[in-house]
Amino acid sequence: MVGTTTAALALTCGAISTPAQASPVQPAEPATPTVLRTVRVDVNGDGKADTVTVTALGGTQYELKVVTAKSTAAVTFGSTDPLESRSVWGGAARLDGVKGAELIVRTSTPDASGGFAVYTWRKGALVAEAAPASPSTRAGWWTGSAQAIRFLTSHGRAYVDVAKLALAGTSSGLRAKIVRSVWRGGKWVKVSTRSVKLSASKTDYYTDLQAPSILLNQAKVDMDGDGKLDTVSYRLLAGERTQTKIVTAKGKVITRTIHNQDFGDAPLIAGIDGVPGSELAYIDGDGYSWKVLTVRKGKLVVSPSPEGNPTWLRSPEQFNEGYDLALVNGQWQVITNSKSTGGDPITVTWWRYLWISGAWVRQNTWTTTVTESEVGTLCRSFCGVDVTQL
Fold it and tell me: How far apart are CA 215 and CA 213, in angstroms?
């Protein structure tokens, strides 16, 4: 479906001196704060959505801010996670036994990778929630190959499992020493310790940070093609699953839940086919193809590739570099390309398709050659349209 275009921002600086006298050292201009993530979720527990923003302040400093109907609270924290990955934001989720969502941010350092902090709303302020007991010697909230944290609810009570992980010898699966805590009296209280072998299906629940539902991102975009903005939410569910939820401007709810092994990174939102509205493009679990979902008759369904396949494939022999989309003479067009492996110059095969009567129809094909240095100029992903990652 048809989209728009985006722009990038660049920052330059310089210094001036004269032969007679060096100019005084000018203080570095402060970095421009950059908002990395904005979501709407109930944080203070009043049942109304609050505005949560994560902002890069410069260097390794970030701000987490919550604006409610009556007040504003903010905290700063440090993290060495790269700004471009937006990975400092871990999500919003109901974790403890108090109304309102907790906010998860990554606080990794070169000496302590995998660390994070959990902030919660208390008496009009954001406060750091103390971590539960752990079977590991390292204190605080952290996950990695040796430790996972799982939040769960049982009989209306909030629990958290902190699992120390190890390979289960020569057999498949993992062994885990799990310390379970319950939310009681405003804090996590240890209730049990057990050692278990995790089956392959159970390991999905003890990977990194798990919770029944973690809100990762939201976007406002027209998905159903009625010209009105819909709300798209992307959540991480327990068991290595993700859920995409669309609430249309008319209030209709459309959801799709998938397993992370089937799809990789968060989906892209882009206008891909010739129908009004946007599509969701997921990188397939193997990393070599795309699956595109679109709204049709109130459901998220697969949008076939230009070749008519359910996945937008890269062939084993040649690697599809992308899909270049454009509106040409009133018709929606896509040009795909595949390049030969190895050699210089490299042969590139091109195919041009038009969107006609609800399907892609091939028009023509041709070949060109490019040098190894020119390969980077070829379209990768989806080009010519506005692309947003959830």
Answer: 7
Q: What DSSP assignment string belongs to 322-336?
A: EEEEEEETTEEEEEE
pLDDT digits (tens, 9 = 90+) for 133-171: 999 988 889 998 889 999 999 999 999 999 999 887 656
Closest CA to 32 of 55, 51, 15, 6: 55
Q: Are 188 and 181 in contact (CB under 8 A)?
A: yes
For the range 79-87, what are the long-range contacts, defined as Cβ-Cβ under 8 Å and sequence gap of 24 or more?
79/105, 79/106, 79/107, 79/108, 79/109, 80/108, 80/109, 80/110, 81/106, 81/108, 83/34, 83/36, 83/56, 86/36, 86/37
Domain end call among 194, 211, 228:
211
Return left, alpha or beta for 287; rule: phi > 0 is left, psi -120 to 50 is alpha, else beta. left
Cis peptide before 19 (omega within 30 of 0): no
Handedness of CA 92, 95, 98, 99 (dihedral sign): positive
Give pLDDT tens digits for 10-57. 322 333 233 334 444 454 555 789 999 999 999 999 999 999 999 999
Distance from C-alpha of 309 to C-alpha of 221, rounded to nearest angstrom? 26
Q: Which amino acid would we find at residue 249?
A: A
Of the candidates 284, 302, 285, which has an alpha carbon nearest to the alpha carbon of residue 293? 302
Provide, for the chain, the percentages of residues in helix, strand and coil under a 3-state DSSP scheme, each rounded to the nearest 5: 5, 50, 45
* Spatial distance between the Cα atoms of 322 and 377, rounded to a whole number of angstroms: 11
Indicate whether 380 and 274 sit together in one domain.
yes
Residue 87 domain-assigned?
Answer: yes
Helix locations, the chain, DSSP H = 200-203
67 neighbors 74 (Cβ within 8 angstroms)? no
Q: Domain limits at 134?
A: 130-211
* CB of 336 closer than 8 Å to CB of 323: yes
Q: Distance between CA 379 and CA 390 in Å, rounded?
A: 21
**Letter for the amino acid at 146?**
A
For residues 90 and 70, the answer to whether their CB atoms sit within 8 Å is no
- Tokens 């996590």 belong to which residue? 188
Question: Do residues 72 and 95 share a domain?
Answer: yes
- 76 with 42, same domain: the answer is yes
pTM: 0.84
Question: Which of 145, 95, 140 minimizes the C-alpha distance to 117?
Answer: 140
